[in-house]
Write a structure and sequence with these properties.
The protein has helices at 28-38, 55-64, 89-94, 132-144, 160-172, 184-197, 255-262, 271-286, 292-304, and strands at 14-20, 43-49, 69-72, 86-87, 99-105, 111-113, 125-129, 152-156, 176-180, 202-205, 212-217, 241-246, 266-268. α4 crosses α5 (160-172) and α4 packs across α8. It has nine helices and 13 strands. The chain folds into two domains: 14-130 and 273-304, 3-Layer(aba) Sandwich (Rossmann fold), CATH 3.40.50.10860; 134-269, Rossmann fold (3-Layer(aba) Sandwich), CATH 3.40.50.720. β9 (176-180), α6 (184-197) and β10 (202-205) form a beta-alpha-beta unit. The chain is an alpha/beta fold and 310 residues long. Bound molecules: 2'-monophosphoadenosine-5'-diphosphate. Residues 73-75, 77-78, 157-162, 181-183, 186, 219-221, 227-228, 230 line the site of 2'-monophosphoadenosine-5'-diphosphate (ATR). 2'-monophosphoadenosine-5'-diphosphate (ATR) is lined by residues 73-75, 77-78, 157-162, 181-183, 186, 219-221, 227-228, 230.
């Protein structure tokens, strides 16, 4: 079946985007633009390389140019917290922002997503959400049949994505959570926060001294071919894990996932997480149900080429 053609870009086309650095690997434009076209929406989704020191300027630009929404990826998710006018409970709970909704007041004075308004009058505010945290739990469940409750988990990475995943998994009731990060102090800080907020979880820093159900990579190491493995396999062999999840989805098979397969682990990349965080963002911006199957097919085509499933 052929895809509906996108509407031509005009002066009234609505805009959304993903910003990050690096950004050229992003499959989000393919996912969102296919979804907009499928629903006949006159919207477009762009990807922009934005350096962290320019994030505040970029947000101000989007605010004054009438952007409806922005997704944030490496390395912006933590930085954006203090740049928002309002934080949704999700961003507060999981300590990172990956979705921004631009809002203005409607005729009744109710703050409303800009994408739902015909005219933007008065000030525009930025409301930060976290749609990553729920997405990782759903993807672990669907792609690896992992139920976090009671599990032993090694999480690598304590940036925006790692932090959201760690807090959300703690909230799910994992039994033991090991946090490993290149900059140890960030893992220690996060562990202290989890110990305080989720006292039932046994949280530790460093590598496990036992087997685990899952290793999760939430670092950006693996995006570029020259990147080192995010874990020292001499110190912790992957054969000690049942499953390995890499939040990276391009390349679809990172060196970490290749090693994990060779070690007999079940594996999944971050495509499922990308899909569900994107679907939630789509619904926040448009107030329309996200066409999940269309979005998934667009991602598979974009990342695997031919459209066959993983
Ligand atoms: P995001 O918001 O997407 O999580 P981030 O906050 O910049 O992006 O976090 C990136 C994560 O990848 C961090 O955990 C980072 O480790 P540091 O805290 O030490 O910076 C990790 N990371 C990036 N490059 C890495 C590498 N080459 N090896 C190991 N970890 C790396």
């Amino acid at each position: 079946m052929s895809e509906p053609a996108p509407k031509p870009v005009t002066a009234s086309t609505r805009l959304a985007a993903v910003w990050g650095s690096p950004i050229r690997h992003s499959a989000s434009p393919a996912m969102h633009n296919t979804a907009f076209a499928a629903l006949g929406l006159d919207w477009r989704y762009l990807a922009c390389e934005v350096a962290p020191e320019r994030l505040a300027t970029a947000l101000e630009g989007a605010r004054v140019m009438g952007f409806c929404g922005v997704n944030l990826t490496v390395p912006h998710k933590r930085l954006a917290l203090e740049m928002m006018d309002e934080l949704d409970a999700s961003a507060r709970a999981w300590g990172a922002v990956n979705t921004v909704v631009f809002e203005a007041e409607n005729a009744e004075g109710v703050w409303t997503p800009v994408g739902l308004l015909r005219n933007i009058q008065g000030p525009v505010r930025m409301r930060g959400y976290n749609t990553d945290a729920d997405a990782i739990v759903r993807s672990l469940n669907e792609d690896l049949h992992i139920e976090p409750r009671g599990a032993r988990v090694l999480l690598i990475g304590a940036g925006g994505a790692g932090r959201a995943a760690a807090l959300r998994l703690a909230d799910e009731g994992v039994a033991t959570l090991w946090l490993q990060n290149r900059t140890e102090s960030k893992a220690e800080e996060l562990a202290a926060e989890i110990a305080e907020r989720f006292p039932a979880v046994d949280v530790r820093t460093g590598l496990p001294d036992t087997d685990v159900e899952i290793i999760l990579n939430a670092t950006s190491s693996g995006l570029k071919p020259e990147d080192p493995l995010p874990i020292d396999l001499g110190a912790y062999p992957l054969s000690r894990a049942d499953a390995v999840y890499d939040m990276i989805y391009r390349p679809a098979e990172t060196p970490l996932l290749r090693q994990a397969l060779e070690s007999g682990c079940r594996t999944a990349n971050g495509l499922g997480m990308l899909l569900y965080q994107g679907a939630a963002a789509f619904e926040l911006w448009t107030h329309r149900p996200a066409p999940i199957d269309v979005m998934r097919a667009a991602l598979v085509r974009e990342v695997y080429g031919s459209g066959e499933s993983r």
